[in-house]
Amino acid sequence: MSVTIHDVARQVNLSIATVSRALNRPESVPEPTRQRVLEAVRLTGYRPDAIGRSLREGRSRSVGLIVSDIRNPFYASITKAVEDIAQARGYGVLICNADEKPERAQEALHFLASHQVSGIIHVPTGENVAVLGELEARGVPIVDLDRVSGLQNAGAVLVNNRQGARQAAEHLIGLGHQRIATIAGPQHLTTGRERLEGFRQALEEAGIRLLKRHVEFGDFREASGMRAAQRLFALPKPPTALFVANNEMMAGALGAVLESGRRIPHDISLVGFDDARWAQYMHPPLTVVAQPIDAIGTLAAEQLFERIEGKPAARIQVLDTQLIVRASTGPPGAS
Amino acid sequence: MSVTIHDVARQVNLSIATVSRALNRPESVPEPTRQRVLEAVRLTGYRPDAIGRSLREGRSRSVGLIVSDIRNPFYASITKAVEDIAQARGYGVLICNADEKPERAQEALHFLASHQVSGIIHVPTGENVAVLGELEARGVPIVDLDRVSGLQNAGAVLVNNRQGARQAAEHLIGLGHQRIATIAGPQHLTTGRERLEGFRQALEEAGIRLLKRHVEFGDFREASGMRAAQRLFALPKPPTALFVANNEMMAGALGAVLESGRRIPHDISLVGFDDARWAQYMHPPLTVVAQPIDAIGTLAAEQLFERIEGKPAARIQVLDTQLIVRASTGPPGAS
DNA sequence: TTGTAGGCGTTATCAC
DNA sequence: GTGATAACGCCTACAA
């Protein structure tokens, strides 16, 4: 069995109360006693049982992280940033992969609740405001990441999606494109909506109407991107430029491009949202709207811990995107 | 506050014992009683507190996952597979990113121990056999993944690294290369050692001596791959073919190739270990030794839960690799 | 069939 | 300065 505080107490002929105090409130115990305890701890290899402590304190020293797709490098990076910061503070990370399914996210939320996590970082997958609200009412800080859950008191770390989409659109327009299409994300997600809106708006301001048949929708997963691109390429007058609203759907769209024998950017100019290693390495390197991934994860984790440690102010932080022009975009019909 | 078993008991005028029984041992309670309880559970929204249960049972319904680099898509996929299976069984996953640092892995191990996890899936980062042994002695099943920790009773899911490296070497030899180099992984890791051994052996069998200056070592991270490749390219007679022992170091090596102005495969043939999306998309597409990623994660998780649920047999499962020939390899000096 | 009570490991309150 | 004790929520012998 494991060594408990009783073993340490026995070792030094003190009560468990004193041992606990020596460990948690060093000032409340005379230095010599404290040293004796510390020595005994070293000797026995005692480590406080996290479960016992959690039960007593009403919260576990761990945080929940719900991502929509752990295989998307964007969320893998986020996970790393969050885990880094949690580990530094002695917290654990319970990871849940919602796989873009709201039911799974809800299940995860319940699970985290019953585990008394100290806080939750959450990539919303759909409508789970009810469960979130309960958690929040119980005093569990919540930080939305990437998307917005609709929960009132949640903090959030987001990216300026409208700006990003606008950058993509303006770049394409500047190159002289007129038949510009987009593969948009799910419209029940803020990222899906905002990227489409920013894109449409930029086009309109340039006097270009975004045709209905030039807007295809996907679910932010690879397969849907491929299908959407295939539909676009099947049009009588296919677009000469395409803005794809996330990296996974872009991976799928690329498959369709290859399949159709089109050359990039001669036959089709491509702009993605969110950078990824493969985007830099592919041929030609992909023009993208990049997000400050590390900052997103770090800020979310930092805000979460600030609030866990007492600062009540939930903040909504919006970060800027950056257009990185590489070689997948060019004037229509030119190589 | 949260709703506890007491609230449910009050609701139906029963003792908490009966409620607990109705929930955990349906057969030990008359059906009508059970129904009343279930109804009350629904009404109150009661969910058992995982912490209380864990304390009582001496183990939490969660497993630990220690990976060496969560941003490496290989481990991100593993994480997904493990989380999938855990979630299906009602277990949570505590994720720890060791970042290839043994101290962090050890810290993580202690953390998981104090959290009374039911089992651990573990990508060894170095020598943590002592802590692992304690865990194991406490009855916590451990499954090594990808590498081998040296722990006696651990199960393991591995890949045939020697075979994989051999496939790479033979492919290069078959193409006619003579000056073949490798960027090997850390030699304190089984993957690092075995891939180098298999590679060397295949060369020797073909009558090619692997020169000392043609073996560079990295730490399985991108930056080290770049530096290693730079050293290789600075040789008076640089190699015409290069086998890189993992995908991250390959990413770095690619940077060095670009920087040096070499063309692939005309000036240098490249074979990687482990496939990645960018490997397929890059130009030219990368020849790789692929690992059955999903199977690795799934088998590890399945073995872990089998053992959690009582089957004592730790197994060592070794999976085959597969050479995928794409366009980054060709005869020396030919395009 | 159901209830009472003990205890898992911890921290904190209250005596001494 | 230190110790005894209660409490957190749960499950399960044992008693009724």
UniProtKB/TrEMBL annotation, chains A, B:
Keywords: DNA-binding, Transcription, Transcription regulation. It holds the Pfam family LacI. It comes from the Bacteria. SMART domains: HTH_LACI. This is LacI family transcriptional regulator. Coiled coil: none annotated. The keyword Lipid metabolism does not apply. It comes from Deinococcus metallilatus. Gene3D superfamilies: 3.40.50.2300, lambda repressor-like DNA-binding domains. InterPro entries: HTH_LacI, LacI/GalR-like_sensor, Lambda_DNA-bd_dom_sf, Peripla_BP_I. One of its GO terms (molecular function) is transcription cis-regulatory region binding. Residues 3-57 form the HTH lacI-type domain. The keyword Nucleus does not apply.
